[in-house]
Amino acid sequence: MKHRILPYLGIVVLVLGIALCPSPPRNTRVDPNEILQKVIDSEEKASYLAVQRFFARTVGGEAERILKTSKSGAKIDIGNTRSINLTKRSIIWGLVKRNYTPLIEGEDTIAGRPVWVLRLKPSMKRRPWRQMWVDKETGVILASRDWTSENRIKASMKTLEYCVYKESEAKDHSLQPNDNDETPQGFARRDQFIPEQFVLVREYPLNRDMELREYSDGLFQITVMKGDLGEMLNESPIGIFDYGLGKVCHEKRGDRHIIVIADLPVVNIKKIASSIH
Asked: Is residue 239 packed enough to be buried (19+ CB in 10 Å), middle (13-18) or exposed (0-12)?
């Protein structure tokens, strides 16, 4: 059954579909690259508490949750998830700057705070892309929309309540960092037919019989899994299906399973899967 494979696909449902209608920017001299840099800087510097609504399309339809987010410097905790350390994300943001062009679409107000509306335009056609509503003062992303390669909204987030910490207050809300960083030191290993914009950012075993590799272009991922997860995968459908945030290609060769998860054209996903041995 499709829904039984999802917990093992590394799919994090993050965002929420809300109508956000930006007004045209009044200050045309604002540099979108400076706004993007402010977003990058905020990951390690900004501290806040927020209530955020997340939405994502799934195999069964749609998922929506309201979660509390706590961020203190480079550490962030969303809902009941583990604390995430953002200090090692320079590689990811480097990929964003390399593969996407920031464009200012307008201005808006989110949770009572003035924001810039920023579009991250991919360098390649038929690729997913993102809109971000960026706090003018702090650079924090207060809302976002992820669009599929077919220009359909697949996920979104909107901040409902937002409170900025002062520096003296931030230490009282500090989170424990996550030291289980599986990011490899080098990016030499690579599956065939992975688009050149994507680099290998994580590689680790799910169990003794199943390997997982994640490639990223900065915003989106290609996940490759191969091996055997036992009965759960044996009951999962073979072929290609849409799980809402992208497509899953599941092939079985003997007692081994090959799974590729990505928001790419079907022909590309099939090529990646067929090249895995």
From this structure: exposed
Q: What is the pLDDT of residue 63?
A: 85
Strands (E), 75-229: 75-78, 84-85, 100-110, 113-122, 129-135, 141-147, 153-164, 199-207, 210-216, 221-227
Residues 112 and 164: beta-carbon distance below 8 Å: no
Decide if 76 contacts 83 (C-beta within 8 A): yes
Q: Which CATH superfamily is domain 199-275 in?
A: MucB/RseB, C-terminal domain (3.30.200.100)
pLDDT at 180: 42
Half-sphere exposure of 201 (CA within 13 A, CB side): 21
Q: What is the dihedral of CA 201, 205, 210, 212, to 10 degrees?
A: -10
**Torsions phi, psi of 113, nearest 5?**
-115, 135
Q: Which of 186, 194, 250 is nearest to 222 (CA)?
A: 194
What gap in Å lies between CA 131 and CA 119, rounded to an integer?
Answer: 4
Report the topology of domain 2-173.
outer membrane lipoprotein receptor (LolB), chain A (2.50.20)
- Give pLDDT < 50 ranges for the chain: 1-21, 167-188
Fold match flag (2-173 vs 199-275):
no
Q: How many C-beta neighbours within 10 Å does residue 93 have?
A: 17
Structure confidence at residue 233 (pLDDT): 56
What local confidence, expressed as pLDDT, does residue 87 receive? 62
